[in-house]
User: What shape does this take?
Amino acid sequence: MRPIPKVLLSCLLCLLLGWSGAAAAFPDVEAGSWYRDAVEEMTASGLLSGYPDGSFRPGQTISAAEFVTITARTAGAAPSQGQTAHWAAGYLQTALEKGWYDWDELPPTGEKFDQPIPRQLAVKVLMRALLPERRGDYNTERAKISDFSQLDGRYYEAVLAAYAAGVVKGDSSGTFRPHSGLSRAEACILIQRAKQAAGGSTAPAPDPGTTPETPPSPVVTVQGGVTENGALQVKGTQLCNQAGEPVVLRGMSTHGLQWYGSFANAQSIRNTAQHGANVFRLAMYTGEGGYLSQPEAMKQTLIAAADAAIAQDLYVILDWHILSDGDPSAHTEEAVAFFTEMAKRYKDSPAVLYEICNEPNGNISWSGNVKPYAEKVVQAIRAQAPKAVILIGSPTWSQDIHQAAADPVAGENLMYTLHFYAGTHGQELRDRIDAVRAKGLPVFVSEWGTSRADGSGGVFLAESAQWLDFLAQRGISWCNWSLCDKGETSAALKPGTSPNGVWSQEALTQSGQFVFSRFGQ
Ligand code: IDC
Assistant: This one.
């Protein structure tokens, strides 16, 4: 394609986006129409204008380039150096750099710039640009959207927030039509509503986290990796960094290393880190063909993965994944030997956390089996790594944290794991978390899934979001089950995904898209 001459280009920009700042009376914007006020106000403030022939074309579908540019200007953002000669490349580059959308949604190479922007993407861009702190209560907002199931997981948060903020209002049938385009008139209304909800200011939108527009969550946490946070410690019920600031870890758990160890390789870990995770959990099954039947091989897989995670600046959890072997005290000796060796090996690394019993279950009790086991293993780890954070499970697949709260293990930097699956567990377990924290028990969600407890069914994204909002409010860390390509809904990767390549959004399952989009929140 021949490049457009610069003069013509700036002319086009003026006309389309109204750099003259003059309010135009558009013949095709009828008096009394539902969008007229919005169009007039935005034209008057110089954010928008019409076409060279004087028309506004309210019914025309807005392109991605137009929508993002107007949003960026409304947010007071400046254009950066674009990667192509497209008239909007500069603003789109800024939007990309600010994380208002991801590379694959609107590649900077420009092939989607002039296509209609899907409504779900438009809302994401708008909310991130103008109302980055807003969240929507899933129960209230989801009820307003009759075609909620059509939404892609990665847009879920933004759309709920947009409904909550009144930026999007359902039509009479309650549909949102996430994959359809927006007319220019509709876009104008949405942008104006977001601008008003943000306080009407056209000043640059604040960076999320520095000057939030809504009151901060009860716990303000830092993220970041090991270099930034150093050795972890537990203060009260809160996980903190070396400096004593509340910290939150969010990331993935592997599936069983004996089956899906390939997804614990350096490339898979790098992929996960690049999506914003700061922790990686290594699920080393003890039973089911795992460590107890092939200790050396499993240990080597685990060590290689732990080292790869550390190389990516991630915290790493060494998980003694008891499951079918429900009583941890049946193998105390093996666990003591294993954790002694690991703690010796990693005693100087601030990155390593020890999870000593994934999910005790069956005919066992806290006081008779789990606590005595935990005391011995904690002591063994402490002999090598006096300060490392240790995660302790509880009966009923790590749900009976109330039993641990009534009779905790003595010592510092100990946390208790709570596991949930969004299709199975809900309010009752959330209430339990609040109850044990009130008693001073620090909680770490070292495993949760978007599926039912059997790893399948769903996915239950609304319920998952409610859980993650709950955890974020309390500064509770989590790892999601699981990073593998098994054909089950809890898996983050579609079957056949290579552990050796970079993963596009298409490689991620519905669960994976949702979970990866929540590492930062
Ligand atoms: C599940 C896996 C599934 C596997 C099964 C048995 O998703 O593919 O066949 O284990 O090994 C847990 C466990 C975790 C379970 C997961 C889902 O910690 O090992 O994985 N789950 O069932 N606790 C609650 C749910």
Observations:
- Residues 1-23, 201-218 have pLDDT under 50 and may be disordered.
